[in-house]
Write a structure and sequence with these properties.
Length: about 130
Amino acid sequence: MLALNLHHTAIAVHDLDSTLNALDAMFRVGPISREVVEEQGVEEAMVPFGGSYLQVLQALDEDTPVGRFLSKRGEGIHHLAVQVADIDAALSHLRDVGVRIVGDGPSIGGGGNRIAFIDPSGLNGTLVELIEVA
Ligand code: CO
């Protein structure tokens, strides 16, 4: 599997607007995109930091993966995203080496990118997303 880039780090927050205001005040950076992604149950913004992004996630409601994360663990780092050239090949490789994948396979994330999540047991409790950029 070819890992191209650490594409983004995602944080889960209660208030996307106030977090974007804080990032502007701290680093003078703003989002290059902001969208509701119903399939993932989030409203998300992508904020560029050099060659990588900070993804800011707000849950659409409590009964979503990010909503449950916020209830259980509070705000903070939610996942790391590794960019791959071919997500189907990456998932096949991971299954071959015994790594558990969350769900059935790729789904559609923000920007129409194909994404999948590796079970946190695969990397010391850290949730890792694979992203094939459209
Ligand atoms: Co992500």
